[in-house]
Amino acid sequence: MTEHPAITPGPPLSVLDAAAQFVAEQARDLRLHGRRVRKKGDEEAVHDMRVTTRRLRTALRALKGHVTTPRDLNGRLRWLAQKLGAVRDQDVLLALLASERLPAAARDERTRLEALIGKLAARRRKALRKLREALTRARYDALREGLKEFSRAPSPARADHLMASRVLASVSERLGAEVARSPGLTLPDPEAKELHQLRILFKRLRYALDFHAAASGLSYDAERRTARAMQDVLGEIHDHDLLLAWLEEGRGPFAGKWPALTARLQGERARLVRRFRRVKKEWAARTRPEPSVAPLAAPRFVNLEVQPVTLRLVTSPRQVASGMIA
Fold it and tell me: Global pTM?
């Protein structure tokens, strides 16, 4: 899977400048990944294109109230995300039912598991065909053109043009506070639905922090890494929960009992939960507020020369480090 590019500190940008720059970069990525999907259609290409749509949607959501986003642009991004998601869902299931599980399955389950994998692979081919057809339609062309127009001249939603660092620091603080209050993080033994909601919150926070870093040349480096690790492990738990629920329900291609496969998936889920708890401790350590600093006993000179800054996200209200940025 592709990594988010390293962030190089740059000059401060207004909200409009940041919106134009970031959307232009993501529009180029969307075009490149779209070509890969049409040419190869492999799991990585679909994943990368889906991540780009998420970054775009997060950025536009973060700038709401500061930049006017055409309604049809949001709608077309949502439409494309659904087409990509239909393929990605099958990729996730096929990865969970990878061939190395076959020898561990009971003999009767092994045969049915092979058939199940075949049916899911057929579903993927059908979803990929629809995705490729979507990428040839006028609606996709209109989406790409809309992103280009937006990046050329984004429309302000308010008279004042605030600095992107201020606006995005406020967004990061709000999303960080939502994460901190989430039952998935605060309860000692959260249920599947609470972990799923926490995954969504971390996904939004991670992409908002990426946008913040790309737009203002500042970054919560440690928090971005930990948020990604949290999103990854929560995503894997969610995938296991969905598959276990379908196996228990036993409908359609999942018909019948799957004791061996279920036991293996439950064991893997328990391992993922242990990993989640480790990352949770790391996140708590990263976002714990610093103790207050006593005032200086006497005035002294300080270096006011501008330096590259690494931010530290804390979840106590009004204590985000980026509040010090002009």
Answer: 0.81
